[in-house]
Amino acid sequence: MQIDASDALRRAGLRVTAPRVAAVEALQSGSHATADEVFARVTTALPGTSLQAMYVVLAALTGAGIVRRIEPAGSPSRYELRTGDNHHHVVCSLCGAIDDVDCVVGEAPCLAPSDTSGYLVQTAEVTFWGLCPDCRAREGAADDEPVGADPALHTAP
């Protein structure tokens, strides 16, 4: 996703600073990045940037809605520029690769809980877990059984 970092910062009411612009540009070169990965990309252009400063920048970008933070179980927080929709994610349980999954059913929030306990539900986060194509290839693709498949219907060759 390509956006003009300076324009996005101005529209969000944030000052345009070199670390903020660099962070947005770093996420354009690779989504679902950890703070450490964004920091590594930013320091090539801004070598004086600290990791702590990058956490502050990412928090400001997330708070302004320019960046979305996701937190897959057992993984550090990840950051992406795709905001404003209620998409979900699929995560490889071996290597941790992450991809986007568009809305599961219908309009946002994509899922309807049976009981909201009085909450006004605005988004739903769903994380699908499985094996990415690269890990499936390394594993020999022997376990290509789709989720929910009935093993009793599986016939031996």
Automatic annotation (TrEMBL):
Keyword field contains Chloroplast: no
Keyword Cytoplasm assigned: yes
As for subcellular location, the record says: Cytoplasm
Which Pfam families has this protein been placed in? FUR
Location, primary (coarse class): cytoplasm
Superkingdom of this protein's organism: Bacteria
**Classification via SUPFAM superfamilies:** Winged helix' DNA-binding domain
Q: Which InterPro entries match?
A: FUR (IPR002481), Fur_C (IPR043135), WH-like_DNA-bd_sf (IPR036388), WH_DNA-bd_sf (IPR036390)
Alphabetical UniProt keywords: Cytoplasm, DNA-binding, Iron, Metal-binding, Repressor, Transcription, Transcription regulation, Zinc
For this protein, the record's CDD domains field holds: Fur_like
What family does the database annotate? Answer: Belongs to the Fur family.
Name listed for the protein in its UniProt record: Fur family transcriptional regulator
Q: What is the source species?
A: Frondihabitans peucedani
